[in-house]
Design a protein that fits this description.
The structure holds two protein chains of two kinds. Chain A has three helices and five strands; from the N terminus they run E-H-H-E-E-H-E-E. Chain A is an alpha+beta fold. Chain A has one domain: 2-Layer Sandwich (Heat Shock Protein 90), CATH 3.30.565.10. Chain A is globular and about 45 Å long. Chain B is built from four helices and five strands; from the N terminus they run ββαββαβαα. In chain B, helix 1 runs parallel beside helix 2. The chains are: A alpha+beta, B alpha/beta. At the A-B interface, helix 2 and helix 3 of A face strand 4, helix 2 and helix 3 of B.
């Protein structure tokens, strides 16, 4: 069972993306906590695309969702045709630093790595393809 | 997201409820900026906060930095989901959580 949605990559569309994913999670009977964590990861990735993928800020993002039973997990793929960028290459922030020395950036992708069970990135046919998996 | 601010002299309590995400975090940041001048004791009540993304964490971090200069900040009534996010990101070490 695969479903996908394509929309303008703007932060205004964030809630549409999350609603689209949540519908799936509700069907899968997933826990509130897992749902929240998938939401958080999806927000970070979609907002990243909205902010950085397209130089003029205009372009589409496609979100594909699929569920598997065995193991019981959700796979979400984000596709954009923007600037080639692998967010997984970004160095993790040093989370042991005191507040003054903490960097404001880099937290989102770090959180995504921690909350998901698997993340892969590929650049194919002019498209950034980021796939995340989470056991439910 | 709803923000409720209560000021008493140089003490302020900000209660945040709902979702603190990319679209709502700027509102919180603006509300804090407007009111934080002269505050020595800031309490952030997250009892009814359902969700926090990195955009929300960034506001907490920048607010903590301001309060390190001018007084104290405490985050109270942290639920399990939000606490897990604080732990993963090391925010349990930089915030005072009660």
């Amino acid at each position: 069972m695969d479903k996908k949605i394509t929309l303008n990559a703007t932060t205004d569309n964030l809630h549409k993306v999350l609603e689209f994913i949540e519908e799936y999670l509700d069907d899968a009977g997933c826990s509130m906590n897992a749902k929240m964590q998938v939401d958080m990861a999806a927000e970070e990735i979609f907002v990243n695309i909205a902010h950085y993928a397209y130089e003029d800020g205009k372009g589409d993002a496609t979100v594909c969702v699929s569920l598997s039973d065995n193991p019981n997990e959700i796979t979400i793929t984000f596709i954009d045709s923007g600037i080639p960028y692998n967010p997984l290459d970004k160095a993790d922030p040093d989370i042991s630093l005191p507040a003054e020395e903490r960097q404001i950036g880099g937290l989102g992708i770090f959180l995504t790595k921690k909350l998901m069970d698997g993340l892969t990135y590929a650049y194919e046919n002019g498209q950034n393809i980021l796939t995340m998996k989470k056991g439910l | 997201m709803t923000i409720n601010t209560k000021k008493d002299g140089n003490e302020m309590t900000i209660a945040i409820s709902g979702r603190l995400d990319t679209s709502t975090a700027p509102k919180l940041e603006a509300a804090i900026k407007d009111d934080i001048g002269g505050i020595r004791n800031l309490i952030i009540d997250v009892k009814d906060l359902d969700y926090i993304s990195s955009a929300g964490l960034r506001v907490l971090l920048s607010t903590q930095k301001i309060m390190n200069q001018q007084g104290k900040m405490k985050v109270v009534n942290v639920n399990e989901t939000v606490m897990e996010i604080f732990e993963i990101t090391g925010f349990t070490d930089i915030l005072t959580i009660d």
